[in-house]
Amino acid sequence: MSYIQPGSAEYRRSTVALFGGAFVTFAELYATQPLMPELSRYFHVTPAVSSLSLSAATAALAVSMLWVSGLSDSWGRKRLMSASLLASAFLSIFVAASPNFAALLLLRAAQGATIAGFPSIAMAYVNEEFHPKEIGRAMGLYVSGTSVGGMTGRMIIGALSDAFSWRIAVLVLGVISLGLAAWFWRALPLPRNFTPKLIGVREVVERLGEAFHRKPLIGVYALGFLLMGGFVTMYNYVTYLLMGSPYHFSQTLVGFIFIVYLTGTLSSTWMGRLSDSMGRSQAMRLAISIALAGCLMTLFIPVALKIVGLAIFTFGFFGAHSVASGWVGQLAPAFKAQASSFYLLFYYAGSSIAGAVGGLFWSVYGWPGVIGMITVLLMSAFLVERLVAGWLRREHSDASPV
After folding, report:
1. Within the chain, how many helices (H) and strands (E) appear?
2. Bridge-partner residues for 308, per DSSP?
3. Beta-carbon neighbour count of residue 365 at 10 Å?
4. Are the beta carbons of 84 and 118 closer than 8 angstroms?
5. Do 331 and 339 touch, CB atoms closer than 8 A?
6. Amino acid 164: pLDDT
7. How many Cα neighbours within 13 Å face the side chain of 170?
8. What is the CATH code of the structural domain delimited by 1-199?
9. How far is CA 348 from the centre of its chain?
């Protein structure tokens, strides 16, 4: 097979293109999160209803992951990713012109469905086109794009909505996304280790079944659920904590806490390289340990320690996500797109379910309750990682000649 080689111009173009695609995808996905209070005022809806502007997109994204993998097998990786970026950019422009909140929700759901054509396929592209020894580093760069996109998108949207309006903010993001979609199509090299082929519904179902057959793969899917569940729970309720007594942060100041996403950019790349050298199992345990240490640090009262703890937690989470993303492709050589889709389905299910349950812990037990819940999720991730490692050792032992 012919792989994209590190140090080459092709390597630089492909990694930067994947970074840019991840950047704009996650900027669009989370665009309405900082706008929720403004959407409540503008459309006269409650905060719970306003939050559906994000939930509609992530739910549609999660469900669409299952069928979009089959489409990429017949339509082609690059073509589908490019179409996804283009369609989601146009939908951002349509969202900006929403006549009412119901229309906004429908457009956001459609946007989530179109965005589904990028994340899992990008993971499959990395696992197919980059040399196996470089997959961890390339996946780390891709994941760093998701962290920068999530951070910058929230900050840009917040600043533009303050200066102009929420409609102008979403419109500007849509125009930027259109430009990046066109550039992505030109910059990303054509796949060389993948040949599109027409497959029927039955074969798609069979491939999905294969991607849900191996215990180690199911374990990695569970890791995605637990890790993302803890991450979203942390960020959902730390804003309530900092805006309340004794901190009384303003909405603008709270928005700047997303700068700690930069630690995720660093950790995803660093941990990706580390997983290539020390092994995915050890790298995963290290990343979870870092996230747990940061989580517990946020229990200290001084706000500086809370922010440092949040940064350490974010560093650990994105590192763990980078390792898990690369692990999926390694464990599913024949059905990478389907396995990546399942991983992201569990990933976003963790966001939806654990993020909502965290609200109960916040209401009843306050911040210690939220941290207690996240700690349980991270400790469960430790246990699942040990199970995955054990299953892999057993498979290797069974495959060895007697």
Report:
1. 16, 0
2. none
3. 13
4. yes
5. yes
6. 86
7. 28
8. 1.20.1250.20
9. 8
pLDDT digits (tens, 9 = 90+) for 204-248: 666 667 667 778 889 999 999 999 999 988 987 887 788 778 888
Share of the chain above pLDDT 90, in %: 28
pLDDT in tens, 260-318: 878 877 787 788 778 877 888 899 999 999 999 999 999 998 999 999 999 999 999 98
Q: What is the pLDDT of residues 104-117, one digit of tens each?
A: 999 999 999 999 88
Q: Could you check whether 1-199 and 200-402 share the same CATH topology?
A: yes
Ranked by mean pLDDT, the top range of 27-36, 60-69, 168-177 is 168-177
Tokens of 377: 């999720």
* Domain regions of the chain by residue span: 1-199, 200-402
* Torsion 24-135-270-286 (CA) sign: positive
Measure the CA–CA gap between 139 and 272, rounded to whole angstroms.
7
* Residue 271 CB neighbours (<10 A): 31
**Of 319, 311, 306, 310, which is closest to residue 381 (Cα–Cα)?**
319
DSSP string, 171-233: HHHHHHHHHHHHHHHHHSPPPSS-------HHHHHHHHHHHTT-HHHHHHHHHHHHHHHHHHH
Indicate the DSSP class of residue 260. G
Asked if 31 and 188 count as a contact pair (C-beta separation under 8 A), the reply is no
Q: What single DSSP character describes residue 5?
A: P
> What H or E segment, with its residue span, contains residue 311?
helix 303-331
Cα 294 → chain centroid:
20
CA 319 to chain centre: 12
pLDDT digits (tens, 9 = 90+) for 310-356: 999 999 998 998 888 878 877 876 666 678 778 888 888 887 778 77
CATH of range 200-402; options 2.40.10.500, 1.20.1250.20, 2.60.120.10, 3.40.50.1010 = 1.20.1250.20
